[in-house]
Write a structure and sequence with these properties.
By secondary structure, this protein is α+β, with helices and mostly antiparallel strands. It has 8 helices and 12 strands. Bound molecules: copper (II) ion.
Length: 344
């Protein structure tokens, strides 16, 4: 093959292959890519926290291994092709002949692809919804946040899903507008949320902790900022959480000025605060907002300062989101923040 190359190209390729520096390119690239796997493990498929996610991670490693082996084999053959001197005049049969083509080109890919197919089917079967389910949670995708309902417990929340550890939790997935996809990489695979259609899925967490989830289907401007948290609690703590959520208390008197602002400023048209006249369903339920990890579906930490910034102008934080900016006097904003962050 090298005989038929124009001499300049031959010299160029030879120089690149000999130059050590060329290895720096893939090495640096791999370092960057692998670097992305480490660091914050809160949303990593490669750090599974459930049996189902462990099976998916296993399949990932099997595929990664198989593809790496095939890639290396092809590269070795390529280098052989480049460097090997042709036998005789270059008119004889190519390396290995017909047998090489049948074995390397037909038999080997068939065996490898069949093996990977069997491994994927096995994983798919292992991911089926377990028979025994303890809890049903309904999750509804909105642009760009998550509505979370516990129909049997009569609890509604948003952008955060509390579950007990050690048991499979059945998920009923819906969408209020466009197609979204529910994905908590450490707990299970993805499942689409389709308007007018209900999908059933499940997650489980072995250990208590916070697991970050992310919309996995492009759904418009703020798709990338449509995240949420699964909070896995030990069973007793989960029962306590349910009991607490089922008994909403009216806001203490000190917070009533803030409640007043909430009712006057139009917030109640889009948001619900249980136990009050606010029953809007355009935006997230704000009943126990103070206890949540984040605001704006995982976008900013839930602190009074960030909350004030969000209410004042959420468009600066999450441009294009469906909450209009508000025009409140500083003391009104202050009272509103205190009211929303208050334990209820
Ligand atoms: Cu989405």
């Amino acid at each position: 093959m090298t005989e038929t190359m124009p001499p300049s190209l031959k010299r160029g390729v030879g120089r690149i292959l000999r130059a050590r520096g060329v290895w720096a390119v893939p090495a640096l690239g791999a370092a960057f890519l692998l670097g992305g796997c480490e660091g914050d493990r809160i949303q990593s498929t490669l750090h599974p926290a459930s049996e189902a996610a462990a099976k998916i991670a296993w399949l990932w490693w099997v595929m990664c291994g198989a593809f790496t082996a095939v890639f290396l084999l092809v590269m070795v053959l390529l280098l052989l092709g480049v460097y090997r001197r042709p036998s005789g005049e270059g008119t004889g049969p190519p390396l290995g002949g017909t047998r090489f083509v049948i074995l390397g080109g037909i038999a080997m890919p068939t065996v490898i692809l069949l093996g990977l197919l069997i491994a994927s089917l096995e994983t798919t079967v292992a991911l089926r919804l377990p028979e025994k389910q303890t809890l049903t949670v309904e999750v509804i995708g909105h642009r760009w946040w998550w509505e979370v309902r516990y129909p049997d417990q009569n609890i509604v929340t948003a952008n955060e899903i509390q579950i007990p550890t050690g048991v499979p939790v059945r998920l009923v997935l819906k969408s209020a507008d466009v197609i979204h996809s529910f994905w908590v990489p450490r707990l299970n695979g993805k499942m689409d949320m389709i308007p007018g259609h209900t999908n059933t899925f499940w997650i489980a967490a072995e250990k208590p902790g916070e697991y970050r989830g992310q919309c996995a289907e492009y759904c418009g401007l703020q798709h990338a900022k449509m995240a949420f948290y699964v909070v896995a609690l030990p069973p007793e703590a989960f029962r306590a959480w349910v009991a607490e959520r089922q008994t909403p208390r009216p806001a203490p008197e000190a917070f009533l000025p803030g409640q007043e602002v909430f009712m006057q400023a139009g917030c109640k048209n889009c948001h619900t605060v249980r136990g009050t006249a606010a029953v809007g369903r355009v935006g997230p339920d704000l009943t126990h907002l103070g206890s949540r990890i984040s605001l704006g579906a995982g976008e900013i930490p839930n602190t009074p300062g960030h909350l004030g910034g969000w209410i004042g102008n959420s468009q600066r934080i999450k441009p294009g989101n469906l909450m209009p900016r508000s025009f409140l006097a500083p003391e009104e904003l202050h009272a509103l923040v205190r009211y929303l962050e208050a334990p209820k």
